[in-house]
Amino acid sequence: MRHIAVLGTGSDVGKSIVAAALCRSLADRGIKIAPFKSQNMSNNSGITPEGLEMGRAQIVQAEAARIPPHVDMNPILLKPTGEKQSQVILLGKVHGNHSAMDYHRQKSFYFQKACQAFDRLEQTCDRIVLEGAGSCAEVNLMPNDIVNFPMAEYAKADVVLVADIHRGGVFAQIIGTLACLPQKYQDMVKGFIINRFRGDIALFKDGVEWIEKQTRKKVLGVLPWYSHFKIDAEDSVEIENCRNFNDLDPDIPAIAVIRLPHIANFTDFHALAKIKGLQVVYIDRPDHLEKFKAVIIPGSKNTRADLEWLVQKFKTPLEAYVRSKGFILGICGGYQMLGEFVDDPEGLEGKPGKTRALNLLPVQTVLKAPKTTTLSDFEWEGEKGKGYEIHMGSTTLKSGTPLVKILARNSIPSRDMDGCMEMDQKIAGTYIHGFFDSPRILAKWLNRIGLNPPCPEEDMAALKEKNYLLLKEHFEAHVGLSPFL
Fold it and tell me: How many domains does the chain have?
């Protein structure tokens, strides 16, 4: 029973989803399965039970495999802080900030760490589902690739190539990818999964036959487009296109999330987006803020750079929005931006310095190591919730009221307070990611901003489990599992 490597013809073709589906399908057949991706690049991360940081895609896949996430499943996480700079998370902890060239020069070191993590993970399970990154056939990057074929080769894995028919050119995607690969890598590809098909699959029968004739490899399945379930995404592709204000339905209340240039952990808003009778939209300009019942400033991987952008574009409109009795919530970096300033004396996110903030909350933030990474239990006005914290530095209240009580961090009891609330409870901030994932917390916040839509009674964990079941059913209905068993 060989390991399986899910590689792609490009970015966002569905590798993460296919890997998650395989994890759930094989786990439900009694196979002890685990996910693995040697190197991730994403600002949408999560926390393990040990309080360590890793990419969200492998957390999702671990949940699908019915096992706790562990950093050996994603030993290297790159969190971009700019066009050519990333914070490197190695085995769950900050390893440093590297330029693209610096990281490139140390690839052999990081590949060794990835192989060691794979070896440890292999001792805990029967099989591993490896996920690739981007296109597996980038010829200029191939000599130093530590994610795609070199990792699959190290793992002695069979390769499944995923292609996206929705973006067009699926035949060229598959044939072109194979043509760019050396023969030994071509031989590792055991078949193809074609993702995001719209229409009558029977009409694609000739296409399947053509691909199989040209490549002499099997099309293992064609996955139709789906909209009846949602799996947490790793990348911000789903929020790249901001909503046009003209698209808003004036008869349905709306909440705006400001799409910061370095937005992080946008999955914080999935629970909000699932509320019927509520519009949750991403905006990158301050036009018509009066249309929104609340404005949320999300987390950021480069707080001071995003703060400068936010102050330039949104400061005056947000001040007017506050005067008109609008509600504002900041989460993590967004909480820091609501304060008086953000100080980075050690240059953890770039050039050292202090940046004036929105001055809407009486708090001051200093960025400093070590990084806080915790699974956190909290309480807000009598209602309890579960979330997580990922941030550098600390925020000091000069006045105002703390927002929540921290009951425990990484299962260790706590009496700390978090966040701040001001202006008759209309402006608030917190470090808690996943703040809305508990139904009672979500309902209370919506009621606070003047809304009372029907909220789901089940929390996000229960809803995720339903979605994993639907993913499995969707996958197994269209992909034959016999090659994987």
Answer: 2
Question: Are 445 and 473 members of one domain?
Answer: no
Q: With 90 as the cut, is the pLDDT of residue 116 above it?
A: yes
Say if residue 439 is in the same domain as residue 477: no
- Contact, 462 vs 444, CB < 8 A? no
Q: Looking at 23, 125, 136, 332, which residue is catalytic?
A: 332
Give the CATH number for residue 192. Answer: 3.40.50.300
The neighbour count for residue 332, using CB atoms within 10 Å, is: 24
Name the packing angle between helices 205-215 and 170-180 (round to 10°): 10
- Token couple for 335: 């909480």
Q: Which tens digit of pLDDT belongs to each residue from 313-357?
A: 999 999 999 999 899 999 999 999 999 999 999 988 888 999 999
For residues 477 and 448, membership in a common domain is answered with no
Would you state the structure tokens that stand for residue 394, as one six-digit string? 């600390």
Nearby residues of 227 by Cβ (< 8 Å), 6 or more positions away: none
Residue 332 a catalytic site member: yes
Are 392 and 279 in a shared domain? yes
Q: Residue 480's pLDDT is what?
A: 84
Catalytic residue among 3, 98, 262, 433: 433
Do 330 and 436 belong together in one domain?
yes
Residue-wise pLDDT tens digits, 176-233: 999 999 999 999 999 999 999 998 888 899 999 999 999 999 999 999 998 888 887 7
Mean pLDDT across 435-445: 93
Per-residue pLDDT, 255: 95
Using the predicted structure, report yes or no on whether residue 98 has a pLDDT greater than 70.
yes
Q: Are residues 173 and 320 in the same domain?
A: no
Residue 183 sits in the same domain as residue 264: no
Q: Is the pLDDT of residue 369 over 90?
A: no
Q: Are residues 431 and 325 in the same domain?
A: yes
| Domain of residue 163, residue span | 4-231+464-484
Mean of the pLDDT values across residues 167-184? 96
**What percent of the chain has pLDDT above 90?**
78
Active-site residue flag, 433? yes
